[in-house]
Amino acid sequence: MTHPIAPMIIRGQVITDNLIEVGGRGGDLSFLTPDANKYIDQLPLGNPAKLADLYSLSFEDILDYAVALGERLALDKNRYLQEACELSYLTAPTTPSIVKGSYMGLQHLLSRELIREMAESTVGINYLEGWVPQTLLDGTQLEVRCFGARTLHIVAGNAVSLSLWTIIRNMVLRSDAIIKAPSNDPFTALAIARTMVDMAPDHPLTKHLSVAYWKGGDEAFEQRLYQPQNLEKIVAWGGFASMKHVTRYIQPGLELISLDPKRSASIIGKDTFDSEANMREAAVRLAADIGAINQKGCVCARVVYVQSGTDEQGLERLNVFGQYVYEAMLGLPNTLSTTPKRYDQGLKAHVDALRLDDEWYKVIGGKAGEGAIICSQLPEPVSFAASLDDRTANLVPVDDLSEMMNAVDAYTQTVGVYPESIKDQLKDVLPLYGAQRIVSLGYAAAMKFAAPQDSIEPMRRMGKWISNQIAAPETSAAPWLRPSIS
């Protein structure tokens, strides 16, 4: 069998030497890639003064480059993306139609207006373009500017767009990026980088992107790379074990920006049950939040608190609503959601066991591994709520929305809400318990460039914020002119 080759890209140079065989996640594909240990001295930028060429570019220059790149990321015209898409069918946690739909959408992220909105909202373009002055109360003139940094990005592979998000953020900040490709998506960032090399091999934005694959946990390699003389920031997405692993390298001069594992929930208010139309609308919206990318994202709904009531009539409402959600989930477009690639067998065993306990749980679907809706018949989530995956959600009946607050904590990323009218009573309370993002039901997977993420502002954190103070005795009190105490 011929193994595909995933080259290494180091600042405009495409490397295909010193190949070793590695396996993508899931065991369906092995590929060849350069041995990262052979290039450990080339991967870091080294001298931070080498970032200077990025400052010959204006923000409009960066936008021009991004738009030109977007034109070249049309899937039907880009052989690198086509190859990456085909190979990702084997490594991705989702099915081919979802993978292909994600690749088809990449070029739309490179809109001039979208990137401008993101940069203005998350950083402020004037801080990227130069020193922003202000006069303080004591007369000091203060200038502030956001500079780029030498950054390592450990990218998650559960969504194709994350690699492009990373590249766009890096361009806007005028940073130098090394992207560690994930084992479940080793090809996307590489395909984009190769497109950039073909388009403008000597452009500063091309010359400040590197993409490499190495097996996570290679301590000898990481110990050499993850050093303050090589990097200033590590942006890490990932599960608990991988995040814990990265923290061992953090030291003064090397900052970790952690986009760590989260889970999400939904809230369905009592007004949903005022009409059949409301129930159907909420069901479709909730199905989208459960089923998006087959529930592989932190944003996807898993436990759903439904203000149906817990009496006999309330449980009947809940079960009818659960059936509507299940039906809507099966009807989602196949670029958003499908029968899962591999239904987790441990999860299936839990779900099947609940079928035998129909007094306390009603299980809708799931027999064919297509996903299931579990309707609790008491106001408590299932014991395996943290393991819900593969389009499997748990609807929990409550009498009052306050009953679900104890289930919200620092791991709660997104809370989808329906109807919109109950947002006002929730949006000032949910964050106190730990919720990080509140969204209209059905839009959980529609994350926005312009918004904070995981209760931080990663774009601001990824930049280096530098101040310049200008003071003179004529305008600001001089420390050396303070009166002495006798």
UniProtKB/TrEMBL annotation:
InterPro entries: Ald_DH/histidinol_DH, CoA_reduct_LuxC. It comes from the Bacteria. One of its GO terms (molecular function) is acyl-CoA dehydrogenase activity. The keyword Lipid metabolism does not apply. It holds the Pfam family LuxC. GO terms for biological process: bioluminescence. Keywords: NADP. This is Long-chain-fatty-acyl-CoA reductase.
